[in-house]
Amino acid sequence: MLVYMAVSKGGSTLRDLQLALQLKIEELRQRDALIDDLELELDTKDDLIRQLQYELDRHRSSSQVTVSVAETTNTEEAVTVNPVGSDEPLRTKRQAISAEPSALDPSQLTDVTLTSYCKSKESSELIQKALMDNDFMKHLEHGQILTIMDCMRPTSLTKGCCVIQEGDDGSTVYVLEEGMVEVTKQGKKLCSIGPEKVFGELAILYNCTRTATVTALTDIKLWAIDRQDFQTIMMRTGLIKLSQYTDFLRSVPSFQSLPEDILSKLADVLEETHYSDGDYIIRQGASGDTFFIISQGQVKVSQQNSDTDEQVPEKTLTKGDWFGEQALKGEDVRTASVTAVGDVTCLVIDRESFKQLIGGLDDVNNKQCDNDEVKARLQEESDFFSSVTLKDFNIICTLGMGGFSRVELVQLKNDSTRSFALKVLKKRHILDSSQQGHILSERRIMMEVHSPFIIRLYRTFRDSKYLYMLLEVCLGGELWTLLRDRGSFDDSITRFYTGCVIEALAFLHARGIIYRDLKPENIILDHKGYAKLVDFGFAKKVGLGKKTWTFCGTPEYVAPEIILNKGHDNSADCWSLGILVFELLSGSPPFCGSDPMKTYNIILRGIDMVEFPKKITKSAANLIKRLCRFESERQQLTHTDSHC
């Protein structure tokens, strides 16, 4: 009995100790969580103090160009002040936008099954009409609109229900079929929307917070599609079209020996041209410089009888056949007539585009990269920086602040003549915004590119909370700051800075890298005044002749193919270069709206709808218009000797 009581008492004591241990562990966990929260709050307040100190220093300084470096991350907007005595509106740094990296594998898109939803004929026609009347959707191809309509799912809500809540993350676009909805912002009514209208379309481009609330005024019937389905449709149709065009080109004997990347580029510049029954596509004896591939329908080839002047039919060509091949080789006079039999669609390329594209791509492929002397110097640098740590640097001052990063001017402790810029990024923000891929890509690209017109990244560090990037320091200031203070530049200054940017883009494009965030905010000046590209968070190595689909860039600078999710390559940088030239000469970009969606719709109208200021000369305007063509017209510019 005594033994049993002792064992029982011992077991009770053990359970009590285990319970006490569990309570203590839970208490420690709660304490650790509290410490993490307090440290985060402390970090936030430290950042605020640095931001305020930075702004205070700027106010105290003269109106000279601010010593600066690219300090903002891809998703932040920095605060700025007007130069003294300026009557211009407050000019703020623009916010760059990036969609989350796509989970779609382009190689498997043709196997993806999209869900279609049954619709009455009336509903189908209403959805199509609504999409075609929308400023954004109307720029999509007819086949894409039909597929989007087919994949829209039905949704019904009762009066008073909230369709979209201001401040929520959005991923769905809607077409209203029945009923009425009210749009409000911060409790104030903006408008009412009735049937046959599209709303919420910005959400299918990238993840963003809703800017207004939409509430049902009556019982309503909606049709909806999510961003994932929309992007799948756009990527798949684009890839299928590119594959078909490439197959057409591969069937032409003159093109069979061309590499795959060149065939892809040729496929990109093919223009769809439509003809009706009886239309002459080419006439015998006429001059011509275009080559045709039949993608739909059939044509009749005939030659004129020299005795009777009558057209004698020779043969009929159908889908996949081609004609006019000799025009690409310099033979101008057509030896036969070709007429459409019924409706016909042809893919067309002209001689000049063909020659520039093929020649430009050969130049890129034959280009020599870094020589032995440069490689030896880079290896010596790499050996030195691989041995340094964060403890080897003294912080001199803060060069710049952003919402999620800061840039410090640092010096080596054992060599005060060597200064660098240390960019500090918060790990938590990178994770919360799903930008791990962009950060890793930025590091990888910057470590491999070595150009006098691109800022150097020497090495990176990390600890439990931050990532650190040790960069070349450029104390000439930001081009954005200089432009803000001066208002605009003349032709000669613009030509100089544009030349620096072209050198940087040519270096990147020759290596299959696209930049994707060109703007004055991402250009800094060294101590000699030369311009360098900074901030490679959106840069991506896609390879020659390849495309990528992630929506990213600054709204005023993004190319139409990025907005329409058609897939983009380095020609998107040429579009942005045209916007940059316009802004340097005039002080503001050509496409500006009160919100991103309005800006995108203005961009889709094209550069020809823009009224150029008188200060932009005719030659500069012509250059801008050449750079800001739509994609198929712009492709050849990326492969000329000047690279844009």
TrEMBL record:
Enzyme Commission (EC) number: 2.7.11.1
Domain Protein kinase span(s) in chain numbering: 393-644
One of the record's GO molecular function terms: cGMP-dependent protein kinase activity
Keyword Repeat attributed: no
Residues reported in the UniProt entry to bind ATP: K423
Entry-linked SMART domains: cNMP (SM00100), S_TKc (SM00220)
Domain Cyclic nucleotide-binding: from-to ranges: 136-251, 254-375
Ubl conjugation as UniProt keyword: no
Keywords annotated in UniProt: ATP-binding, Kinase, Nucleotide-binding, Serine/threonine-protein kinase, Transferase
Pfam families reported for this sequence: cNMP_binding, Pkinase
Record's signal peptide: none
Record's protein name: non-specific serine/threonine protein kinase
Organism per entry: Solea senegalensis (Senegalese sole)
